[in-house]
Fold each of these.
Amino acid sequence: MSVTDISHRKKFPAQGNIYLPHIVVIDKIIEETPSVRTFHFNFNFKDGKLRKEFTFESGQFAELSVFGVGEATFCISSSPTRNDHLECAINRVGLVTNALHRLGVGAEIGFRGPYGNTFPLELMQGKNLVFVGGGIGLAPLRSIIWNVLDNRDKYGKIDIIYGARSPADLCFKYDLDSWNRDKTVNTIITVDKGDKNWTGKEGFVPAVLEQAAPSAKNAVAVVCGPPIMIRLTFPVLEKLGFTPEQMITTLEKRMKCGVGKCGRCNIGNLFVCRDGPVFTYAQIRSFISDEY
Ligand code: FES
């Protein structure tokens, strides 16, 4: 079986009835960007049994609901290797996310999931890993990055290339600091345009990736970020020698029901919720430039 043959992976069933939200309680809120558009929520199940028994894998997503307002889809940004609580990063962009941002610690919200397939971690063991992220696209990546770092001896060289539009738009700065300090990881942080205090790298993520030029030999690249960044990153990886089967991404766009019923998330002949959200570039390259 090839490392990049991710279609075989089992899909985790939701916990219990797939349509039934469970109550979770928000126990921490971190403001990720000063523009107040991205908050990072930590939460846990109200039900102690579920708190103990709930499982998920890196790459999966969930539906969060604000009662009386509605629900929306978010990737789970925490790692299953650190399962004392769950985390989701939420950009304030619509009705549900605005309502979520108005909540405080102690508020109860609905959670259903986990849904979708997972990053093929078992098949990535022994490989060199290249993580390429942009903006809030680091949310799903940080789940797999922490998962890999918590099992460091199972993987080869690790490169993390992450960027945002400005220093203020960099998310998860505490993680970036931690990865920067980790001598077993090559972390490169970049911004499109720095401010007067920025002493780090400037440049768009695909260009910085090209400069860094990680080897494609025995490697897998995992890419997540804004659609334009994803579209421009794949050709760079190809130029570096990565095959479409060695490139993995996770798509989050346009999901609604999360369980293959509403038809909102189709891309080409695939449903993001049912067939993904994790795909190889080989699976999506014929339609990603038109539809994503
Ligand atoms: S979100 Fe409804 S079918 Fe995918």
Amino acid sequence: MLSRNRSAASWHPFALITACAVLVCGGAFAIACTSPAITPPEIEIEIEPEFESYDSVLNRVIYKIEVEVGVASPAQQTQCQCGLGLGTAGATAPASFSVLSVAVRNRFTSNSDLDYDLPAFAGFAASNAVTNSIKSLGNFNTGATASGFAATVNPFVPPVDTADQKLLLSFRVSFAPEDFNAVNGNVMQFAAGSNDPTHSLGILNNYKSQLILPPFQLSTCDFNFDQVCDIADLNALLAIGPIKAGVSSTDQTQVFDLDGDDVINNQDVDEWLSAAANDEGAADAYKRGDADLNGQIDFNDFLAWLLHFRQQTLLWNEGDFDGSGVVDFTDLIILVINLNS
Ligand SMILES: [Ca+2]
Ligand SMILES: [Ca+2]
Ligand SMILES: [Ca+2]
Ligand SMILES: [Ca+2]
């Protein structure tokens, strides 16, 4: 069994041998590769995910998810099968999750825009039969969502440079942006095989099981991926402070460094106020003092300041307009100045 928490090993020659067993469509090569004696259990093969695009019509983010595999030519025309599963009984995949396409690509020669660049494997199409076969595998995770694909593969001459671990089984998956946290960190299983009894469909062993996605951002001001730039986002920026004197950005907080100077301070708040107003279609940047970010400074904003006067808070909507960590007369002066600007 794979451990969800074990750190993945980097390249190892046995990884290729293990991977070879999985996509090979029949033949003695597959049998040789599946020898358990040459599969050290501590080796894990990385899942390589990459944000690809956002489909604004369907409201879906699209990621490319790739794992290294080996291939070999079948002796005769064979149906190659592959797929993946996402989730467990305790953490099911969101309903919006789907696998759009599958390809076999060459890591170094691929045009990443191509769905299929190893011609022998062109034509993977979604298959309910393969999906059901994956679900019925004994070691398929209970409660996971399966997606199966099949392609008819004829005997072919493998590319000469595939002996050096350059081939990738590449899935394009999509899901609603708001479901990011139900996909990221969840358990993923890969399956591959064929209709040849010498290489039947099975779950891939020794592949990293936890899918860790790089985060996407549809707007630079939307830090919580809910597609609106609002007070929750501004408060998330301010929460790493007090930012008035400047806080050095880290890998975890660099998303808040909107002007890219490695310091998070009020200049980034200014950038946010401008970007958020632009994102929401407002003509002018939001102003400091606009506690509820409704585009105008009025009695409600004053009330937000008054209710928290002399309190320590990092929250914009509680009246800390200068990121000092306290609501005081400085914040009121900022509000009053912008009232007339
Ligand atoms: Ca947001
Ligand atoms: Ca900055
Ligand atoms: Ca207001
Ligand atoms: Ca303040």
